[in-house]
Structure formats: structure tokens, C-alpha cells
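Page 42, continued from yesterday. The earlier attempt failed because a stray header line got pasted into the input along with the sequence. Redoing it now with the clean sequence only.
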Amino acid sequence: MTGPSPPPTAARLVSAVRTTKGVELKFAYTTPEFIGHLIGGFFVAHGYKHEGDGLSGSVFGKGSVAARLLAGGFATREKFGLIVSSEGPLVSASVTSLMSGVYGGAIGIVREKSARERFASELFAYVYSCGVVPLQYVVPPPSAPLSPDGHYWWDGAAWQPVTPPAG
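This time it went through. C-alpha cells are written below.
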């Protein structure tokens, strides 16, 4: 007895860490392309514009550069870099603020810090709202049908991730 085919990408969140400049995420059972689209979708949904691609990733921004230079900390300007890469069986996504807040003086630095904290919370909530859940490995029973790639087992109702081999 076999179930339906497993989803093409059933991303599972392995770790999510806030850093001083942004967020580091690691995913299992997915591709860099899927994670790039997922996080790119977050930026678009939150009013950021794709401002280009660099040698190591994409840049997304919100607000006016000119207004930030003229009004300092009273103008909103946010800019983040996104780097997505494969690390063995995992996909890593690093989202880093490219702003320091220095041009806005003391007000700009405080606003930048609070913007980073708000950003991380919103990104985590968005990832979960898109159906990416924390990875909880389960060892399948010996008789459970496995997916063709061996990453999932059928529990009779849904595909479940298989515990990866140690090492």
C-alpha cells in the first residue's frame, strides 16, 4: 500500500537564529531555489523591492535613500541582503541588514535595531504561515512504505520525514 507522491518540496526548518545583523535559517528537504522564492515572497509581501543581485546574493530594500540622507533618523530606509546556499543535505539562508543606522545619528541607530528585531519576528511568522514547520524526525516502522528518494515514509495518512543517518 502506498500513498500519494510526496510534495516536490516539503521544507522543514532545522534552525532559526537571530544574529546582531539579521537571521540565519537552515532547512531540510528542500532546494535553494524554493527557499529563495519563499524568502523573496516575504520581502515582496512586506513592501520591499528587489534592488538587485550581487556576487553572493540578492538585495531587497524599502524606503528612499535620498530621504534617509536628507532627514536622517526621521526617514525610514531598510535594506537586506539574502544569501541562499546548499550545505550538504541542508539549505542555508542568511538574511542580513545592510544598514547601520549611523546616518540617522542616535535616532537612526535605535530605529535600525528595532527594525531588525521586528523584521526577524515577521520573517519567522511568514515562514511558518507558508507551511514550513520545525523538523521533527521520526523513525519509521520497518514495514512503512518509503518515498522513491527515501526521505519520507507513509504513515497511512500523510508523508513523514525520515530520520537521516547519523554522521
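Notes: Helices lie at 32-45, 65-71, 105-129.
Reminder to self: strip header lines before submitting.
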